[in-house]
């Protein structure tokens, strides 16, 4: 029979008390560490929440400044959103406001500096910048910006750049390709068909590619 089984209740209690005395610091330390981790986690979550709220308020301030026609203030607010999820949206809004105010060069500069890890936003920024470059007579730069794209809107914009540069045949092919990628019910299809006609092409009457 094991020795522990021969000890009476008093001896067992003494063993437990002695063990607690020897390990009390470790137990208290472990408990304190656990509480600290829980408290630290809550603090971090609260900080992240406050940060997100502050970023959202800065973006709202950017929109308010644009609505009030204060482009300089909007520009400063947009700059404060750098490296945040709102940076690309703020840049797009600011560029539109600058363009509406007749400041095409400033709008181009804003979009040049913009970027996004989101593929959709990144493509939209490139498209808008390319269109402004085309209007500014910088079609070749617009073509470089659109290299390697494959969505309908970007292909259409590439066609616009080539048409502006007098590359009518290449523009026609771009418009045809863009049309094949569009659904037959797409609202932008009518304008694209008109561009194709201007480039010497003829819209197809069949459906689009799947």
UniProtKB/TrEMBL annotation:
- Ancillary SecYEG translocon subunit/Cell division coordinator CpoB TPR domain residues are 17-198
Q: List all membrane-crossing ranges.
A: 25-45
Identify the Pfam families for this entry: TPR_21
A GO molecular function term, named singly, is: protein-containing complex binding
Where does this protein reside within or beyond the cell? Cell membrane
The lineage's top-level taxon is: Bacteria
Topology relative to the lipid bilayer, per the entry, is: Single-pass type II membrane protein
A single cellular component GO annotation: plasma membrane
Could you tell me the keywords of this UniProt record?
Cell membrane, Chaperone, Membrane, Transmembrane, Transmembrane helix
Gene3D superfamilies assigned to the protein according to its UniProt record, in alphabetical order: Tetratricopeptide repeat domain (1.25.40.10)
Chief subcellular location equals membrane
> What is the official name of this protein in its record?
Ancillary SecYEG translocon subunit
């Amino acid at each position: 029979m094991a020795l522990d089984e021969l000890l009476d209740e008093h001896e067992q209690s003494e063993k437990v008390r002695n063990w607690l005395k020897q390990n009390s610091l470790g137990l208290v330390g472990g408990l304190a560490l656990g509480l600290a981790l829980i408290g630290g986690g809550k603090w971090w979550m609260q900080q992240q929440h406050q940060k997100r709220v502050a970023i959202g308020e800065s973006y709202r301030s950017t929109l308010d400044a644009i609505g009030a026609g204060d482009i300089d203030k909007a520009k400063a607010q947009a700059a404060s959103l750098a490296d945040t999820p709102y940076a690309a949206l703020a840049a797009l809004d600011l560029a539109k406001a600058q363009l509406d105010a007749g400041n095409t060069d400033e709008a181009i500069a804003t979009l040049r500096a913009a970027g996004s890890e989101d593929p959709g936003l990144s493509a939209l920024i490139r498209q808008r910048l390319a269109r402004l470059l085309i209007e500014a007579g910088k079609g070749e730069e617009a073509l470089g910006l659109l290299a390697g794209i494959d969505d309908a809107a970007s292909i259409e914009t590439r066609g616009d750049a080539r048409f502006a540069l007098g590359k009518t045949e290449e523009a026609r092919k771009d418009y045809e390709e863009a049309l094949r990628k569009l659904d037959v019910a797409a609202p932008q299809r009518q304008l694209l068909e008109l561009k194709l006609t201007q480039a010497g092409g003829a819209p197809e009457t069949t459906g689009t590619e799947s």
